[in-house]
Amino acid sequence: MEKSVTEAINYRRSVRVYKNKPIDTEKVKGCLKNAVLAPTSSNLQLWEFYHVTDKDVLKQLSVACMNQPAARTAQQLVVVIANKSLWRKHAKANIEFLNKSFKKPNLEESLAKRKKMVFSYYKKLIPTLYSEFLGVLGYLKYFTFQIVGLFRPVYRQTRLSDMRIVAHKSAALAAQNFMISMAAIGYDTCPMEGSDTLRIKKILNISRKAEVNMVIGCGTRDDAGVYGPRFRVPFEEVYHSI
Fold this sequence. Notes:
Layout (H helix, E strand, L loop, with lengths): L4 H7 L13 H11 L11 E6 L2 H10 L4 H4 L3 E7 L4 H15 L7 H22 L5 H13 L11 H25 L3 E5 L4 H8 L6 E9 L15 H4 L4
Antiparallel strand pairs: 1-2, 2-4, 3-4
Helix pairs in contact: 1-8, 2-8, 3-9, 5-6
């Protein structure tokens, strides 16, 4: 029986040793379908997922992940990619989808205004934020927006480094969807940052413009797979009620 959201969150641990027991590839793929339903900045979905089941590739990736047990004993691996360069393609896909959604000949006034707003968003604002030339445009936009911000609230994260962070935040949200979905069906995961990301990109033939967000080990937990009781700093230290 599938766990509830709260049950899955409580069950999920970073499992670092897995049983030598195969897991269902289609079920893992199903969890990745849940991953792409995660919220994403401007609905640009600047992510990709490499679901690795090939034994030889798993061995190569394990080496690239420093041979840590969470990679070495994993039955499958999922490599989560943040790919900012997809923005043009995905902005166009959003526009095509919206064209179909607003295809009524006589739109009521409220919808007509919304159509104008969203098309302006994807055709003007998104290119303004994501267009780049050697990092120079980002700083020009940054200083321009800081000046505008003296007079009214304005979006300030416009540099190349800022947009990279935006893409990685969305990818991480998708990764969490995936890991909670895996926990819900009794499978285990471990998100890993300790890896040689350049080697990973070469192994998987990933675009130069894309970046590895994390590598996730997948399997069924061994008794020694959870290294100890869960520790979190007191909730009161991080919770602020205003």
